[in-house]
Amino acid sequence: MPKEKQTIPVNLGDHVELRVETLASSGDGLCRHEGYTLFVPTGLPGDVARCEIVKTTPRFGVARAVEFSEKSADRVTAPCPVFPECGGCKLQHLDYGQQMAFKVQVVTDALERIGKIGISVPIESVPAERTLHYRNKGSFALSHKGGKPRIGFYKQGTHEVVDSATCDTLLEPVNTIKEWVRGLMQQHRLSIYHEKNHKGLVRGLVVRHSPETGQSLLAFVTTTGEFPQKFTEQLLNRKSLIDLGIVGVVRNINNHKTNAILGDTTKTLWGQDFLTDRLGDLEFQLSLTSFFQVNPFQTVKLYDIIKEWVLQKPGPVVDAYCGNGGISLWLAKSGVGVTGVEESAESVADAKQSSQRNDLPNCRFVTGTLERFLADPESIGPAQTLIVDPPRKGCSEEVIDAIPQLKVERLIYVSCNPATLARDLARLSDYAIRAIKVIDMFPQTAHVETAVLLERTLSP
C-alpha cells in the first residue's frame, strides 16, 4: 500500500513556538510540530522559542529562533563574535561536557540505526583539555566588499564569506599571519577571485603552524596571473617573515571552476615548501597538501590509543590511508614494523623524509590506492593488524570486501564520519568490536572522531 503523503503543517514565514527535543547529528536542534520534523540551528535541548519557518521540504523543515521563552540549562555564552553566522563551530553555545555526551550519542545512534550493530562494549570518550586555540591549520575563503578583502570561513550552507579578524579555534600565530596578509592585500589592492565570473587572482589562503617548533607555512591559492611587484617585495621581506615565524611562502595554482580549495601545481616563492612539526619526540615534515591531524594536542592521545591496542598483540602493521605517516611513525618508534599505504605522492614523500629524520628503518611507505594493494597483498607483506583511517566517505566496497581475505587478526578503524563508520563496520561480519573511543579532535564543532578496535572471530 503506498505511503500516504504527509501534509506540511507550516508555510515559509510562519511563526510557531517550538520546544527542542534533542540535537541532530548536524548539531542543530531537532523539534516536532504536528508530527513534522523541524531543525533549529543554535537550538539546544530544553529551549523553547518562537521560531520563523525559513525552509520546508516534504520530509523536514528549518526554522530560525527569533525569541526564547525558555533556555537550555546547558547553554553557555559563545566566545566567538561571529557565532552563529560563521558555519565553522556549531556547538560553541553548548556546555563542553554536554558536547562530549552529544558526540558519544551520535556514534551510538549511527552504529545502532545505520549499522544495526548491537553495541556490547562501552563507548569511552576522550575529551580535550584545550577546547579553544587548538587548530594548527587555517584554510580561509576570500571575497571582497567595498574594496576591502573579506577573509574567513563560509556562512553555513552558503558561499558567503563571514569576515573575522580572529578565529578562537585557531592557534594564535595562524590568526596573526592571516591578518598580516590581509593588510598587505588591502594596501596593494590585490584582485580577489569571483567564483561566478571566474575572474580575479587570489581565491584562498592557507596557514599551517607548529606550536612545538614555532614554524609556519603560508600559502596563497590563486588563478594564473602575477602578483603586483610592490606586493611581492613587501610580502617576501625577509625580516617580516622571520619575525612571524614563517619558514616558507608558496603559491598554489587553481584555475578550475571548482569548489576544491587546491589545484595541482604549487610553487615556492620564498624559503622552503614545508614546515617541521613535532609530536612527542618525533619530527614530521609537512607540505601544503600533506594530511596531518589539525589538533596536535588530541592527536597524541589518539596515537597513544592506537599504539596501546597494537602492542597488546605485537606484530607487523599495515597503516592504510596513512597520509604523511603520523600513525606509522608513532608505532615504529615503539619497535613495530609498519608499512604505510597512501595515494598522495606528496604525502608519501613527506612520510619518507620524516622516517629518515627520526631514524626509523622499520617503517616503509608505498604510493598507491589501498584497492590496488589489497588486490596484491604480497606487495605490502603480512600483517597482524590493519589500520584504516579513510576520508569522510569511508572505505570503498572493494576495500571492505577485501579485508576479510587478508585474514589480519586485528583491525583498527579510525573514522571522522560516524555514518560511514557504521556502514562499513556492519559489513565486516568476520570481525567483532572490542573497544570504541570517541576522541574530541574538534571541540566546539559537531565533527566526531572515533577509533574502533576489532578482532577476527573466524579462524584463518
Could you explain how this protein is built, in words?
- It is built from ten helices and 23 strands.
- It has an eight-stranded mixed β-sheet, with helices on both faces.
- It is globular and about 65 Å long.
- A hairpin with a 2-residue loop joins β3 and β4.
- The chain has about 450 residues and is an alpha/beta fold.
- α1 packs parallel to α10 and α5 (about 295-310) crosses α6.
- The protein has helices at about 95-115, 170-185, 230-235, 240-245, 295-310, 325-330, 345-355, 370-375, 395-405, 420-425; strands at about 15-20, 20-25, 30-35, 35-40, 50-55, 60-70, 125, 135-145, 150-155, 160-165, 200-210, 215-220, 245-255, 265-270, 275-280, 280-285, 315-320, 340, 365, 385-390, 410-415, 430-440, 450-455.
- Helices cover about 25% and strands about 30% of the residues.
- About 40% of the residues are buried.
- The chain folds into three domains: about 15-70, Nucleic acid-binding proteins (OB fold (Dihydrolipoamide Acetyltransferase, E2P), Beta Barrel), CATH 2.40.50; about 100-130 and about 295-455, Vaccinia Virus protein VP39 (Rossmann fold, 3-Layer(aba) Sandwich), CATH 3.40.50.150; about 135-280, OB fold (Dihydrolipoamide Acetyltransferase, E2P) (Beta Barrel), CATH 2.40.50.1070.
